[in-house]
């Protein structure tokens, strides 16, 4: 009887370790798996264009998905822009509901199906087709692989 609770605790420890430890290096800096939303999105943060703030990517269906990862879609949001260069339509922030005018679509494809794995992301501004890419390589503590 004791084995089942111990196995459940071990499984929970493995999944929370994956969440806490997922950081990828990319050509713009580190991308961090920040948290998961009850609606199934994983929230990743990354260095925004201004170099000071961090943007957020909301990736649908990635929450609790540590094995068998494939392709995912979502949106990214960064600090608002002046109206003359912002998206013509604002989007509701998935966490706060606030209208945001600096956003776009993102596609994330994992290059390895299980944690830790790398990925390639492409993104576009506003409703535009994704046209810029980012490559994420996992940062893993020595001896953790």
| Largest pleated sheet | 8 strands, antiparallel, barrel
The figure for the number of domains is 1
Tell me the series of helices and strands, N- to C-terminal: HEEEEEEEEEE
**Mean pLDDT level:** 85
What is the approximate shape?
globular
Q: Helical element count? A: 1
* Alpha-carbon distance between the two ends: 31 Å
**Helix proportion range:** 10-25%
Oligomer: single chain
- Total strands: 10
Low-confidence stretches: 1-18
Structural class: mainly beta
Strand order of the largest sheet: 1-2-3-4-5-8-9-10
Beta-strand content estimate? 35-45%
Radius of gyration, in angstroms, nearest whole number: 17 Å
Summarize the model shown.
The protein is mostly beta strands and 145 residues long.
Task: Describe the 3D structure.
The protein is mainly beta and 145 residues long. The protein has one domain. It contains one helix and ten strands; from the N terminus they run αββββββββββ. An eight-stranded antiparallel barrel has the order 1-2-3-4-5-8-9-10. It has a two-stranded antiparallel sheet with strand order 6-7. It is globular and about 45 Å long. The N terminus is likely disordered.
């Amino acid at each position: 009887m004791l084995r089942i609770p111990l196995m459940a605790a071990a499984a929970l420890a493995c999944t929370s370790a994956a969440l806490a430890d997922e950081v990828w290096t990319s050509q713009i800096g580190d991308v961090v798996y920040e948290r998961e939303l009850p609606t199934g999105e994983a929230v990743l943060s990354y260095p925004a264009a201004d170099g000071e703030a961090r943007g957020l990517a909301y990736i649908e269906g990635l929450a609790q998905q540590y094995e068998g990862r494939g392709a995912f879609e979502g949106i990214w949001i960064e600090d608002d822009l002046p109206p003359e260069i912002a998206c013509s339509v604002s989007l509701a922030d998935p966490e706060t509901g606030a209208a945001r005018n600096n956003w776009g679509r993102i596609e994330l494809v994992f290059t390895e199906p299980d944690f830790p794995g790398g990925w390639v992301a492409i993104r576009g501004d506003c409703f535009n087709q994704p046209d810029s890419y980012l490559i994420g390589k996992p940062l893993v503590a020595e001896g953790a692989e």
